[in-house]
């Protein structure tokens, strides 16, 4: 039996279920490809930016690296921290105590860190939803296909393979479609979650590193 022919001849409900699963699959694959590209770019640029930051003798020297690595969350954190350092420097020692200045820098870093984490986690919820919901949507299509097979048995008063095969085939196609949408989404979700956690750890380390540099250069 041809799968496309079975789908074309399937009941409206099963066709609707298959269409919804197709849309879930298309959107999840679009997100997978997008997240793969952006996270890879973020990690690569963060590595290069961190190398430039550690080689620099002064925070002013890092500005070039910030412009070259706009996709790096570390560059965004540096920009916010450096801006706050400059504000504190202009105010001078009389403007605020050392503790207050360091607190302001830390808050600036934390704000940008939260923004970058939210950006990286964007659309991850759709992958989680796809992975958890689509098997049940496929299961609903499976149940509907089996019900259709039993209805045909009742109408035709025959339990032959010719009678039940179309309904069972619809059911199995719905099951396969649900798994086809769910499995890549679950794998991608777990993979990206691990990568995001790695980047967050890197951001936390950079947060402390920048505070140490700021304290050493401007904290007195």
Task: Describe the structure in your own words.
- There is one protein chain.
- The protein has 220 residues and is mostly helical.
- Helix content is 87%, strand content 0%.
- The chain contains seven helices and no strands.
- The chain has helices at 3-9, 12-55, 63-68, 73-91, 98-121, 124-156, 161-218.
- Helix 2 packs parallel to helix 7 (161-218).
- The chain starts with a helix and ends with a helix.
Topology:
Layout: H1 3-9, H2 12-55, H3 63-68, H4 73-91, H5 98-121, H6 124-156, H7 161-218
Helix pairs in contact: 2-6, 2-7, 4-5, 4-7, 5-7, 6-7
Describe the structure concisely for a colleague.
With 220 residues, this protein is mostly helical. Helices cover 87% and strands 0% of the residues.
Characterize the main sheet: none
Ends distance:
80 Å
* Principal-axes shape call: rod-shaped
- The percentage of residues in β strands lies in under 5%
Computed CA radius of gyration, to the nearest angstrom: 28 Å
Q: Tally the helices: what do you get?
A: 7
In sequence order, what are the helices and strands, one letter per element?
HHHHHHH
Low-confidence stretches: none
The average pLDDT is 84
How many beta-strand runs? 0
Range of helix content = over 70%
- The secondary-structure class comes to mainly alpha
């Amino acid at each position: 039996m041809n799968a496309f022919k079975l789908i074309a001849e399937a009941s409206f409900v099963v066709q609707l279920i298959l269409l919804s699963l197709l849309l879930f699959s298309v959107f999840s694959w679009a997100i997978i490809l997008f997240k793969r590209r952006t996270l890879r770019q973020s990690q690569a640029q963060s590595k290069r930016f961190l190398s430039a930051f550690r080689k620099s003798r002064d925070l002013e020297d890092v500005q070039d690296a910030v412009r070259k690595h706009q996709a790096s969350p570390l560059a965004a954190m540096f920009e916010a921290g450096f801006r706050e350092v400059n504000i504190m420097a202009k105010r001078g020692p009389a403007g605020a105590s050392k503790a207050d200045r360091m607190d302001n820098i830390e808050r600036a870093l934390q704000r940008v860190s939260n923004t970058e984490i939210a950006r990286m986690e964007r659309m991850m919820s759709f992958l989680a939803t796809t992975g958890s919901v689509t098997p049940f949507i496929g299961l609903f299509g499976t149940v509907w296909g089996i019900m259709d097979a039993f209805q045909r048995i009742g109408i035709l008063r025959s339990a032959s393979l010719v009678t039940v095969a179309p309904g069972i085939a619809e059911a199995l196609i719905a099951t396969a479609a649900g798994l086809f949408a769910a499995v890549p989404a679950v794998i991608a979700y777990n993979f990206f979650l691990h990568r995001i956690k790695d980047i967050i750890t890197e951001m936390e380390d950079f947060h402390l590193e920048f505070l140490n540099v700021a304290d050493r250069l401007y904290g007195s």
